[in-house]
Each structure stands twice: as structure tokens, then as C-alpha cells.
Design a protein that fits this description.
Blueprint lengths: L1 H4 L3 H29 L5 E3 L2 E4 L2 E3 L1 E5 L3 H5 L6 H12 L4 E5 L10 E3 L2 E2 L1 H16 L3 E5 L9 H11 L10 H4 L1 H15 L16 E5 L13 H17 L4 E3 L29 H5 L7 E5 L1 H4 L5 H23 L3 E6 L10 H20 L4 E6 L22 H18 L7 H8 L4
Parallel strand pairs: 4-5, 4-13, 5-8, 8-9, 9-10, 11-12, 12-13
Antiparallel strand pairs: 1-2, 2-3, 6-7
Helix pairs in contact: 6-8, 8-9, 12-13, 13-14
Pfam families: GH5_mannosidase
Protein name: mannan endo-1,4-beta-mannosidase
EC number: 3.2.1.78
């Protein structure tokens, strides 16, 4: 009878014992996960990115293909798999396209018409990134024709009989096309994520907006046309979204009036593209500068050793600009070494990456403006159609994976963020001590 009288107490005690066991076994993991999921907005303090009052130096990557692969059921898993792999390497930012204008799986079918199915794919990308504690640098349009780009906007205006010119550069000066683009910006920035319920402009998962990938305006090498467009569009974006950082998306070339056009640019042609690194990045609504690193594409007669020397000079020059001229962070948003070079050897890519990582690490240690790097590009298996001569499946190249993990840990130590790491990151960095 006594046992029967204590009956209700036994299952309660059993339940509490079970809860205690789960907490003791997995409590640290649970709290770490919660801590990772709650991302704060990235801000700028002078020449540094900051989050919650501490400096942030970026070690990340490009996977431009996220939205495209998130559209279809059979390929959607690749987004989560890549984000998980990046997070396991300690990577903090991924740059990807938030545009697809016209064509297959278009986000913007025609001016002002959007495919909700594709928008939900972008919702998925952002939600997945948040789950894995990775921030996104979202690019808003392409200077190149891939995924529509400025060519598609010009074609739309021409087809509707309102275009001023069939030149691709009319994207920058045609009033009708400017209205098209502003409408797209409004719809995108105010989009309410169908998964998280958060408007894009209010979501700290988004690291920053990139205005345009690799802008060039060959019809006006003075740079005035592009500069006017940058000033107008960045001011417009800031009227809608004051919470996120904004960058141009430059390759980093110096324009015709810059003294560095002769001493730092790869060749003369680089000063005749209608862009200028310092002038464009000085625009008041631009929060940080962006630079690309592609000596393979910029030189045709240099050997590997000469390219490595150029890379160091190129990076140091732009970091100097960030420190002295711009007073803003400088993020190297694309870099890579082609495997199609005649003298290419896999070990060269290791050294190329190491050289770039070392420049950023030294800049971080001195609290200078070199704010980080994003490798072009990372993929997972079975994506040959999206690969190029720079693409890497990181777990298939152990040396590259180790280099990236080591860089993540070095930057964490510089910023004193040890206590913000989860257990997996702590374990990773304990194996990559200097």
C-alpha cells in the first residue's frame, strides 16, 4: 500500500533524472548552439568590422550558386551541406548571388515581376545560413552577363521601347533602367522571409549588401558615370536599410587620375575601365571597400613567383588606402589561382592561399584595415557544371582545408573571441595552434 501511495512521485523523479542527464550530457552543446544562432549585426568602427563591441576579421568563401540550387528539391540539400562544411572550418561569411534576372530559375522574371518559388529559395538560403552561424554577403546585380546582369536590364528597356541605348553601359545612366533597379532593390530589401518571418533589411544573418559584382563602364573611362550611379543607388539603399553594411563590389583597379595606376595596377588597361578603387570606395554611403585578386586573368606573361610578389604588393597597397585614404575596412572578396596555368602545380595553390592569409593576419595583428578574405569558390561533390578553374571541394584537398582552418583560428585569437567559440571550434583550434 505504501508503494502505491508514492506512485505519482516515481515518474516525476524519473523525468527529472532524465532531464538532468540530458543537461549534463548536452547542455554545453545546447547553449553553444543557441549562442551561434543569435547573430548580431556587423558594424563598422573606423577601419574594423565589429560585432558586440569586438573586432571581427573575416575568413570566408564564395558559393554564388546557393539560390539557384535551393529552388529544386533534388539540389537544395547542397546549400546546407556547404554551409555546414564552411562552419566546421570556422568560416564566418559566405558571398552569394541575391539576383537572377531573366532566364532559367530567374528571381526577377521581368521588371517588377518576381517568381515566388525562387524568392522562397533565397529565403531558404538565409535561414540555413542562420542555422549554421554563417553570415551572408549578398550581391545585388552582375556587371557580367551570367545570371542576367546589366545586359538583361538593358534588353528589358530596349524591348519595352524606353531604352536610350543598346549599350550595356546604359544600365548606369538610363533613367528607366535606374527605376527598374530601384524597384528590385525595394522588393528585395523589404522581403519578409517566408521561413524566419524576418524582413531581409532587419536580418543580422546578412553581413552586408554588395551593390554590383565587378562594375566596369568602358564608355566613360573618366569614371564619372559609374560614380554618379554608385552615389545614387547607395543613397537609395540607405533610405530603406540603415542596419546593414554596404560595399560596391570592385575589383580594386586604380583609375586614370590615381597615381597608383602606373605603380600598382597590373597593366595600363586596368585604369581604363571606368572604375577607381579609392574614388568609388570614398562614396559616403559605402561602409567598406572590396577588392579581387586574380593575377592569372590580369597577366599573360608572368610566372608563379612574379604573381606571388604582385599579390603581396596589391594587397598591401589597398590596405594602405584603407588606413590612410578611406579610413574604412578593406575586404578581399574574391581570390584564386587557376589550375589551367601552364606551370600549375597543386602546391602552388597552397602557397598562394598562405601568402594571402598571411597578409591579412599581419594586418589584423596590427589593427590595420585588412579585414579578411573570401576564397573563390567552394563547392561540394557532383557540381562539375558550376565549377571553374578556381573551384575547390575542400574536403578533397586536405592541405587547403587545413590552411583555411588555421586561418580561422589565427583570426579568432587576434580578436580575443575564444569564449564565443563552440566546443567544435575550440577542438579545431586546439589542433591548429601557431
Amino acid at each position: 500500500m505504501a508503494a502505491t501511495g508514492n506512485g505519482p512521485l516515481i515518474p516525476i523523479l524519473g523525468f527529472l533524472t532524465c532531464v538532468a542527464f540530458i543537461y549534463l550530457s548536452f547542455g554545453d552543446l545546447w547553449f553553444d548552439y543557441k549562442g551561434e544562432a543569435e547573430l548580431g549585426f556587423v558594424r563598422r568602427n573606423g577601419t574594423q568590422f565589429v560585432v558586440d563591441g569586438k573586432a571581427l576579421y573575416v575568413n570566408g568563401w564564395n558559393s554564388y550558386w546557393f539560390m539557384d540550387h535551393a529552388v529544386n528539391d533534388h539540389s537544395r540539400h547542397r546549400v546546407g551541406a556547404m554551409l555546414e562544411a564552411g562552419a566546421k572550418m570556422g568560416l564566418t561569411v559566405c558571398r552569394t548571388w541575391a539576383f537572377n534576372d531573366g532566364g532559367y530559375n530567374a528571381l526577377q522574371i521581368s521588371p517588377g515581376r518576381f517568381d515566388e518559388r525562387v524568392f522562397k529559395a533565397l529565403d531558404h538560403v538565409i535561414a540555413e545560413a542562420k542555422t549554421h552561424g554563417v553570415r551572408l554577403l549578398l550581391s545585388l546585380v552582375n556587371n557580367l552577363q551570367a545570371y542576367g546582369g546589366k545586359t538583361q536590364y538593358v534588353n528589358w528597356a530596349w524591348q519595352e521601347g524606353v531604352g536610350l541605348s543598346s549599350s550595356n553601359d546604359s544600365f548606369f545612366f538610363d533613367p528607366s533602367i535606374r527605376r527598374y533597379f530601384k524597384n528590385y532593390l525595394t522588393v528585395l530589401l523589404t522581403r519578409k522571409n517566408s521561413i524566419t518571418g524576418i524582413e531581409y533589411r532587419n536580418d543580422p544573418t546578412i553581413f552586408a549588401w554588395e551593390l554590383i559584382n565587378e562594375p566596369r563602364c568602358l564608355s566613360d573611362i573618366s569614371g564619372d558615370t559609374l560614380q554618379d550611379w554608385i552615389n545614387e543607388m547607395t543613397a537609395f539603399i540607405k533610405t530603406i536599410d540603415k542596419k546593414h553594411l554596404l560595399t560596391v563590389g570592385l575589383e580594386g583597379f586604380y583609375g586614370p587620375k590615381s597615381p597608383k595606376r602606373l605603380t600598382v595596377n597590373p597593366e595600363r588597361w586596368a585604369s581604363e575601365l571606368g572604375s577607381d578603387f579609392v574614388r568609388n570606395s570614398e562614396s559616403p554611403n559605402i561602409d567598406f571597400a572590396s577588392v579581387h585578386i586574380y593575377p592569372d586573368h590580369w597577366f599573360h606573361d608572368q610566372g608563379f613567383e612574379e604573381k606571388v610578389k604582385f599579390v603581396v604588393k596589391w594587397m598591401q597597397s589597398h590596405i594602405e588606402d584603407g588606413d590612410k585614404e578611406l579610413k574604412k575596412p578593406v575586404l578581399f572578396t574574391e581570390f584564386g589561382l587557376s589550375n589551367l596555368n601552364k606551370d600549375y602545380e597543386p602546391s602552388q595553390r597552397d602557397r598562394f592561399y598562405r601568402t594571402i592569409f598571411d597578409v591579412v593576419y599581419k594586418s589584423a595583428k596590427r589593427r590595420r584595415s585588412g579585414a579578411g578574405t573570401l576564397v573563390w569558390q567552394l563547392l561540394i561533390q557532383g557540381m562539375e557544371g558550376f565549377n571553374d578553374d578556381f573551384g575547390i571541394v575542400p574536403w578533397e584537398q586536405d592541405s587547403i582545408q587545413r590552411l583555411m582552418m588555421e586561418q580561422s583560428c589565427r583570426l579568432i585569437r587576434v580578436t580575443g573571441r575564444h569564449h564565443l567559440q563552440d566546443k567544435k571550434s575550440r577542438d579545431m583550434c586546439s589542433q591548429h595552434k601557431p
